[in-house]
TrEMBL record:
<dbReference type="InterPro" id="IPR038752">
    <property type="entry name" value="IQCH"/>
</dbReference>
<feature type="repeat" description="Solcar">
    <location>
        <begin position="1066"/>
        <end position="1157"/>
    </location>
</feature>
<keyword id="KW-0812">Transmembrane</keyword>
<dbReference type="Pfam" id="PF00612">
    <property type="entry name" value="IQ"/>
</dbReference>
<dbReference type="InterPro" id="IPR056855">
    <property type="entry name" value="ATP-grasp_IQCH"/>
</dbReference>
<keyword id="KW-0472">Membrane</keyword>
<feature type="repeat" description="Solcar">
    <location>
        <begin position="1166"/>
        <end position="1252"/>
    </location>
</feature>
<dbReference type="InterPro" id="IPR018108">
    <property type="entry name" value="MCP_transmembrane"/>
</dbReference>
<protein>
    <submittedName>
        <fullName>Mitochondrial 2-oxoglutarate/malate carrier protein</fullName>
    </submittedName>
</protein>
<dbReference type="InterPro" id="IPR000048">
    <property type="entry name" value="IQ_motif_EF-hand-BS"/>
</dbReference>
<feature type="repeat" description="Solcar">
    <location>
        <begin position="981"/>
        <end position="1058"/>
    </location>
</feature>
<comment type="similarity">
    <text>Belongs to the mitochondrial carrier (TC 2.A.29) family.</text>
</comment>
<feature type="domain" description="IQCH-like ATP-grasp">
    <location>
        <begin position="574"/>
        <end position="837"/>
    </location>
</feature>
<dbReference type="Pfam" id="PF24923">
    <property type="entry name" value="ATP-grasp_IQCH"/>
</dbReference>
<dbReference type="GO" id="GO:0016020">
    <property type="term" value="C:membrane"/>
</dbReference>
<dbReference type="InterPro" id="IPR023395">
    <property type="entry name" value="MCP_dom_sf"/>
</dbReference>
<dbReference type="Pfam" id="PF00153">
    <property type="entry name" value="Mito_carr"/>
</dbReference>
Length: 1260
């Protein structure tokens, strides 16, 4: 073996590792110092604040100070540990070097053989130099072979030979030599050892290596001179130790003990220093043990048995077997000797520390409870956050899988789309507006479903004979709604095959989420029955989704069904939905758009940008603040320039005109006005901004603006502008096909005047060739960016007066299936034809008589409007929001007949006509109207005549023609009642209601008379009279209801029936007026009974000798008539009638209006709950408006002085002067508690009594 091999030249890596660890610890120490300083400063600040703060805050400051103190102690402990590590590293370096010098005789021969084999492989020994011990299995007897040995492969096996001992000695010599080399210090040459430390430079780095400097003979001579190796034995070393001492709880350092631990590895050393010794010291210190001696041998064995290093805890019972002297056990089992050594004060402290460790916590119990509650809340909050994070993690993981799968499906569809539509396939229309949740919440849930259903003309995709259409209904599928859709399809195409190819699928869980603004795809994802129906429809067929605004649920549905989306994925669509991103794309293409500013997210930037744009573009009067995400009309606001928002704007415009083009070129001309506008706008924007109907306050809109950002864009106001929408289909980029035009639309926005928008198909405003370059350029750009699917581009076009050229501005981009596209699909389906992009015309599928065509082309007939069979061109008009208050009063069959009477029908043969389709089957207030004919002027005239006739017909229709299901908002009635029955039902309902509410009515009167609080009034009444005290005057109340309620409800119901018969659905002011009239009449009839009621209740405040003591209402009436005359029975009639007018007008009118609003929201249906909610609202309004008059009436009717009672105005003024304005609403709570249930009981009784009448007496 070559013992002078180059691998013996090795570096002192161990010392280098130690240096690296030391540098790391110094870095930790460097970080601890500033932390200690910061924590110390904060502790002093908290201590100083604790001296001056209030008692309520001092406890929190004390807790904070203790927290800082604990952190400071921990930092000190870390610093102390770092110092100990320095010392131990130095000790370890020395002991490790000494350990290497020990001969490894404790190693087994097998381990030596393994080391020898390693050395042979490392030193590349030649085969002939190998010793005889390295033999093969053939040299051994067969029975001596290992059973698991692979004999056929002839593995190398080490056999026992006579040279084994020689080999082991040689291995020991090599290890000794290497240990001597590592033990030498750096930069030193030891001539006696035969080693040199050499220094050289390799690749610019300094390297130190150790190399043999002696010859082989010299080295052998040196080995003979060394002492015989000594084998280390821990048993011998432990015998040298007498005991391990702990004095006053602290371990007395023992070098021999530390050496033993070092020799046997850092594990025992760590167990002793970090685990066992600190716990022994803690126990001995707590028990005040002055001295304790432990057996080293027992301690060593105990250390060796510790397995769970992390959670080991030492107890007193564990220390007892480790004692050197068993007499020391008493220190750990008793306090006898400790009490003898220390005085009473220390004894008490020791006992408290030992047995009352929770003393401090109990002393601060109230503070601990607060900390515990806070910690519990934080804990549960953390658990919920953790659970949500885990749920979101799983959800996002699934979404990523769905996203990738959907992208692959969409890519495949983009390549094969043209071939798919030529074969039988299924189109799944998913009208889901997948906006962000914050943007969806601004919608009313009911209206949001209707808003998604506006694109119902998606079903016109059935015009492709190879296509089956599945439409997911966002609204409730009522019978009338489905019948209306069926009639609509049949009016255009009566072919039975067409109807069979259309399927409407309702959302099975729609009712579950009817109070949330959830988009269709989210509800569909939870509707298992609906998903099952979709699976049945697409089984074994090619299919694809046509979405609206895509969100993650659309992606997941596509992935679940393994069906592609005819759209880009959610992530890419978000980029194209971002208004600021689209605006930047338009700028990069060099196309024109209105003046704007992108990506505004804060108020300061908004004001700054608007100021600069206002000064630059003084000709603009309106500026649109459009959220980056959302719909342009719903999620936006408008800054209108007028004398309030910009009072100095006329002066600014004059200055702009004076300077001309220099105004734009020289900023110095604009600087003064710009600063003025910057100072003015921040003060007025929140007050003058015009928000869309979706937002109630500026704060609500601004919160969305901060989160999503916005685009500030000018609203051009040019002369004779035209807004044109172009709908295109953009193929996938890989197909290398150009974007295909599907149709053009003239868009006329009538939102300001009529709350609707009109689309005229095709556009007839200008030559389409003038906007084709702009549209095609943008479409190709968006196609190169990866877009695929339907695209609509809205252009603002006007003629530049000076340059006399057409200017095309890009206003809005719709990267999805838009409204305009649905109208284009309807028109193609209605005319049975297609769109000709060259001529920009929709061509109908009809045959033209050649004779008529020749006659039409003559000079005399050139200006005549063509008839239906004289041209194949078709022009259509769509009104998106057609509203009429009479629509809900008709069922669809009646409404269809009514439309046909007004010539609203479609002629399949002529391919012209009109239709009206309602948006839903429940509210049915809104719909859309479509009309098509052979000329645009004919279509417009058709719509005008049809709507005029429809409006006149609806006004003339009598109430009796309205079928079941009409919406009555006060009392639901199917047939009219005779007037006398209305009076009877009103009286009975009033009696039942007064019986329920009389206790609170009597309490209210006593509060107003005695001027005491509610609680005291109830207590005094019950204490003096018992339960009967709350029903004092009940008979008078019954008589009053038999007169007052009979009159007011009978008159109201009769007048209401007459009004609805001749005028249809009544508005709120009309209902209030009818209620006031009925209240005045009822109050006049009921005043005598009301007078007796007040006097019977007010007797409580009179002395016994002056009480009237009416036995019942009849006795009171006769007494008043006898003593005060007939006119005395109507004392206080004027304030009573005034109050009744207010009460009945507010109660009945508000009740009707409240029911109307609740029903419009769709949150409540007809029933007791609807009546209750409406009555609570009306009761509140009634109480607020009538209580001042009621207080004055009570004072007048309870007047006991000989002088004439004051008038109602005088009484109110007197109350205000003497008792203050709040006294006018004294008794508000009992009045409201009485008014609301009274209204509920009254109206429920009216409904039930009406039902009983129709059940038993309707035949009569």
């Amino acid at each position: 073996m070559n013992r002078h091999h180059k691998l013996l030249q090795t570096e002192e890596l161990y010392s280098e590792s130690i240096d690296m660890i030391k540098s790391a610890i110094r870095g930790i120490q460097g970080q601890i110092k500033p932390l200690q300083k910061f924590i110390g400063d904060r502790k002093r600040d908290i201590t100083r604040l604790g001296r001056v703060e209030k008692a309520d805050d001092s406890n929190s400051l004390e807790s904070t100070r203790l927290f800082y103190e604990y952190i400071l102690e921990e930092l000190i402990n870390i610093e102390r540990t770092c110092e100990e590590c320095f010392v131990r590293l130095n000790i370890n370096l020395l002991t490790a070097t000494k350990d290497r010098m020990q001969p490894p005789f404790y190693l087994s021969p097998e381990e030596m053989r393994k080391a020898y084999r390693t050395c042979c492989d490392a030193f590349d020994e030649a085969e002939q130099d190998q010793v005889s011990c390295r033999c093969f299995w053939e040299n051994k007897l067969e029975w001596d072979l290992d059973d698991t040995q692979d004999i056929l492969a002839k593995p190398r096996v080490i056999g026992r030979t006579e040279f084994d001992e020689h080999d082991l000695n040689f291995i020991q010599e090599i290890i000794y030599l290497r240990s001597r080399m590592f033990s030498l210090p750096r930069k030193r040459t030891d001539v006696k050892s035969g080693h040199d430390i050499l220094h050289d430079t390799v690749n610019g780095k300094h390297r130190a290596s150790i190399r043999l400097s002696l010859k082989t003979t010299d080295f052998l001579q040196l080995l003979k001179q060394r002492e015989a190796p000594h084998v280390f034995s821990h048993s011998d070393e432990l015998l040298k130790l007498k005991s391990l001492k702990f004095v006053d709880g602290k371990f007395k350092t023992n070098d021999t003990w530390i050496k033993i631990l070092d020799v046997h590895g850092n594990l025992n050393e760590s167990r002793w220093h970090l685990l066992l010794c600190p716990q022994i010291e803690k126990i001995l210190t707590r028990r005040a043990v002055p001295i304790l001696r432990l057996n080293p041998r027992a301690i060593f064995n105990f250390l060796s048995r510790i397995t769970n290093f992390a959670s080991f805890t030492l107890s007193r019972a564990d220390i007892i077997p480790l004692l050197k002297d068993k007499n020391d056990t008493i220190w750990l089992t008793s306090w006898k000797f400790q009490f003898k050594m220390i005085d009473g004060k220390h004894i008490a402290a020791t006992v408290i520390q030992a047995f009352w460790r929770g003393y401090w916590l109990r002393k601060k119990k109230w503070h601990s409870n607060r900390l515990y509650i806070a910690a519990s809340l934080m804990w549960f909050f953390w658990l919920s956050v953790k659970a949500r994070k885990e749920m979101h993690r799983r959800y996002l993981k699934k979404m990523l899988v769905s996203l990738q799968a959907t992208r692959e499906l969409a890519l495949k569809l983009s390549n094969e789309y043209d071939s798919i539509i030529e074969q039988p396939h299924v189109i799944l229309h998913l009208p889901s507006i997948g906006l962000y949740p914050e943007l969806r919440r601004v919608f009313n849930p009911k209206m949001f479903a209707i808003y998604q259903n506006i694109t119902i003309f998606r079903i016109c995709s059935v015009r492709n004979p190879k296509a089956e259409v599945v439409y997911i209904l966002p609204v409730k599928p009522t019978q009338d709604l489905l019948l209306m859709y069926s009639d609509f399809i049949e009016s255009i195409s009566p072919d039975e095959d067409v109807a069979k190819r259309i399927t409407f699928i309702a959302l099975s869980q729609a009712d579950t989420f009817n109070k949330l603004s959830l988009n269709v795809s989210r509800i569909l994802h939870c509707s298992q029955e609906s998903l099952t129906e979709i699976e049945k429809k697409i089984a074994g067929k090619s299919a694809y989704f046509v979405p609206y605004i895509v969100d993650e649920c659309d992606m997941k549905l596509a992935g679940s069904f393994n069906i592609p989306l005819l759209s880009i994925d959610m992530e890419m669509q978000q980029k194209f939905l971002n208004a600021s991103n689209i605006s930047e794309m338009i700028d990069n293409l060099g196309l024109l758009q209105p003046p704007h500013e992108k990506n505004i997210t804060d108020y300061e930037t908004l004001c700054m940008s608007l100021s600069e744009l206002l000064v630059l573009h003084t000709e603009i009067s309106m500026w649109l603040i459009k959220l980056n995400y959302g719909t342009a009309r719903k999620h936006s606001a408008i800054f209108l320039i007028n004398h309030i928002s910009m009072p100095f704007m006329p002066m600014l415009r004059r200055e702009r005109e004076k300077h001309g083009d220099y105004w734009m070129e020289q900023p110095s001309l604009r600087e003064e006005f710009l600063q003025k506008v910057k100072d003015h706008l921040p003060k007025v924007i929140p007050n003058v901004i015009r928000l869309s109907k979706m937002y109630n306050t500026w704060e609500m809109f601004y919160a969305h603006m901060q989160k999503f950002g916005c685009l500030l864009q000018a609203i051009p106001a040019e002369k004779n502008p035209k807004t044109i929408m172009v709908s295109l289909f953009v193929p996938g980029k890989a197909t290398k096909k150009k974007p295909r035009w599907l149709g053009t639309v003239d868009k006329i926005n009538l939102e300001a005047a009529y709350s609707t928008t009109i689309y005229m198909l095709p556009q007839t405003s200008l030559d389409i060739a003038k906007i084709q370059p702009t549209v095609n350029k943008f479409a190709r750009k968006i196609q190169d960016a990866g877009f695929f699917g339907y695209l609509s581009i809205e252009c603002y076009c006007y003629l530049h007066e000076q340059e006399e050229k057409l200017v095309v501005l890009l206003l809005n981009i719709y990267p999805y299936y838009s409204y305009a596209q649905s109208y284009i699909d309807w028109m193609k389906f209605a005319i049975g034809g297609d769109y000709d992009v060259e001529s920009d015309h929709f061509i109908a599928d009809i045959s033209i008589d050649p004779h008529l065509e020749r006659r039409r082309s003559s000079f005399l007939f050139m200006e005549r409007t063509p008839d239906w069979n004289e041209t194949v061109k078709r022009y259509a008009v769509t009104i998106t929001q057609l509203h009429h208050s009479k629509f809900p009063t008709y069922r669809w069959p009646d409404l269809k007949n009514l439309f046909e009477e007004c010539d609203i029908a479609y002629d399949r043969k002529k391919r012209q006509g009109s239709n009206i389709i309602l948006h839903d089957g429940e509210i049915r207030n809104f719909g859309k109207m479509v009309a098509v004919s052979s000329a645009m002027i004919t279509t417009l005239k058709m719509i005008r005549d049809n709507l005029t006739k429809l409006h006149e017909t609806l006004l003339k229709r009598s109430r009796c023609d309205i079928r079941l299901g009409s919406m009555l908002f006060l009392i639901k009635q199917d047939r009219r009642l005779p007037p006398y029955v209305n009076f009877i039902i009103g009286g009975i309902s009033g009696c039942v209601a007064v019986t329920v509410s009389h206790p609170m009515d009597s309490t209210k009167v006593r509060m107003q008379i005695l001027k005491i609080p509610l609680k005291a009034t109830i207590y005094n009444t019950f204490k003096e009279y018992g339960i009967r005290g709350f029903y004092v005057g009940w008979t008078a109340g019954i008589i009053r209801q038999l007169t007052y309620s009979t009159a007011r409800l009978g008159i109201y119901n009769t007048l209401y029936d007459l009004g609805t018969t001749y005028f249809g659905r009544l508005n709120y002011p009309t209902m209030v007026c009818i209620g006031m009239c009925s209240g005045i009449c009822g109050a006049f009839v009921g005043t005598p009974a009301d007078l007796v009621l007040v006097r019977m209740i007010s007797d409580i405040r009179l002395p016994p000798e002056k009480r009237r003591n009416y036995r019942n209402v009849f006795h009171g009436l006769m007494d008043i008539g006898r003593t005060e005359g007939i006119r005395g029975l109507w004392r206080g009639a004027l304030p009573t009638m005034t109050r009744a007018a207010i009460v009945n007008g507010a109660q009945l009118g508000t009740y009707s209006r409240a029911k109307m609003m609740w029903k419009d929201t769709g949150l409540l249906e007809e029933g007791v709950l609807l009546s209750f909610c409406s009555a609570m609202i009306s009761g509140f309004v009634v109480t607020v408006t009538s209580l001042p008059v009621d207080v004055a009436k009570t004072r007048i009717q309870s007047w006991t002085l000989p002088s004439k009672p004051p008038g109602i105005i005088t009484a109110i003024i007197t109350v205000i002067k003497t008792e203050g304005i709040p006294s006018l609403w004294r008794g508000f709570l009992p009045t409201y508690i009485r008014a609301a249930p009274h209204a509920v009981v009254t109206m429920v009784c009216v409904d039930k009594l009406r039902q009983l009448y129709f059940k038993f007496f309707s035949s009569a």
